[in-house]
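Researcher: Let's try something more involved. This one mixes different molecule types, so please make sure each is placed in the same coordinate frame as the others.
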Amino acid sequence: MTTADHIAPSTDTLVSARHLSVRYGRKTAVDDVSFSIPKGRVVGLLGHNGAGKTTLMKALVGLAEPAGELSVLGLHPQRDRVALLQGACYIPDVAILPRWARVSELITLMGRLHPRFSAERARQLLARTSVGLGDKVKSLSKGMVAQAHLALVASIDARLMILDEPTLGLDVLSRKAFYEMLIDEWCDGERSVLVSTHQVEEVESLLSDVLMLNEGKLVLSISLEEVDRRFVALSHDPAVAEQMAAAHPLLKYRVQGGSAALFDGEPPPHVQALGRRVRPSLVDLFVALTRKPELDRQHF
Amino acid sequence: MKNLLPLMLREWLQYRFAWALLVLVPLALSLLLLSVGTIQLDDEMTAMAPQQLSLMVAVLSMLITATVLLMLLGTTSLFTALGSPRRDHGDRSVEFWLSLPSGHAESLLAPLLVHLLLVPAAALVVGYLAALPISLVTVGRVTGVGEWFALPWGQILPALGALLLRALAGLPLAVLWLLPLVLAAMMANALFRRWGLPVLGVGLILLAQGLERLFGQPVLADTLGALLVNAATSLAGAAGQALTSEQGSMPLEALPALPAWALRDLAAAYANMAQPLMAGALLVSAGLFAALVAWRRRGASAG
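Model: All components are placed in one shared frame. Result:
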């Protein structure tokens, strides 16, 4: 298990956190995490409910008071919150647009409130959705609200987008449409995205890096290329399960037609000979690195 | 504070239809009722000559229209302002507003400016204009439409215009006098949600009673009373003189004196600001506003 690693180093770092902690009274929501996000990355923030994902994202946009060092776009998030939110856009949750407003009114307001917002681009992006400019938010489905929100936010000429469970509760078509718009219309190789989601398998193909939080601690900070190099999954016959277990894998799990074992690093050659190497999925890695709370709960 | 205007625009976009209804529905109802209902006059008015009666009815109907609209829009706006700290929590859109580059102070200040100053001011102006058709219908029913057109509008409109300007200029003073109470109520609503106003009311009553019984000093009750009286006299009556006392009781005789009266009354309202109570009110208001900003900042960071 890795703690406080760094995502691929870069000279143009958009987010830099060192020994960052956030406490709510006596509860530590984020516990001594260190990571950085360079430009041009799509970073997935994974963790169970209550792992500290939302708190970490709030700290990044100046809405939570952290201890430690934190710099976002070279700014202090709390002290420079207004300036920071001009260069970083943030979708804190799904379906939170004001229900009384029409979409065109939100464009008007965003145009006045955000110096880097393009009303023309918002209208172009909305034209590709089923959301009309004259529609009231309260008349839209949850998926349409999420699309409208992304279209508004994607019309901000920002360098960093932070998305906190942006597709929670949406059907699969809405989720697909949301991520297609995000990748097609916003990501350009220079901008970075930090997205937290429970639908790990759906975003895995979009991500370049992953951060995993477990009970407030950062248990993994790594690029997906590095995941393929570092973690080894062996598909094997159930008959050799005991020999696999003796090699202390991170996780033993079922795959179609047999079993598999996930290792951190190359397993010994005699163990590798017992199975067939397969690509470890993020879901398996996530379960392997954050399973302790689940096991603990089984005791109750 | 550069986002203050866009945030005020948000108030317009959110409440414009409600404001339009609050103006148009009572006006339409009034016009309808005045058109088909019965208008009863007391003996004194019945004894007046038609010209004097028309003038009296016109001026009274205009004053009543403007006052009713001010009370209606002012009261609803006041309650909107009191609920503004928590209004976006219901549909969770507070998260959307917090994700935009606007400061906590300006986000709290914008609804205060709109609902305490601009809406009441607009209500006064609209009341002044809407009073014309109301007075037309009223005078038409009492003495005939022709009498309305024969009225000395060259005297009436400037005189009532002076009253309008007097009230508009006094409005910011009234808001300043009321500000400690308004901000205290906003803070109570922020902390206790729907129980905010009852908690504040009961708290103030108990505190006032306690101070009076323990120390024999009704200082809190006196202070609250003084704030309310000063707020009311900031709009009219600060000089303590009745409108018509100097020039007689007939409207036509009093009209020419109204602009001078309004000016004296306004000067008295401004002079009334120079007292320790206003300094205390401003200090308390500043403290309460800072507490509201801190509450919003802390609420934004609550996980």
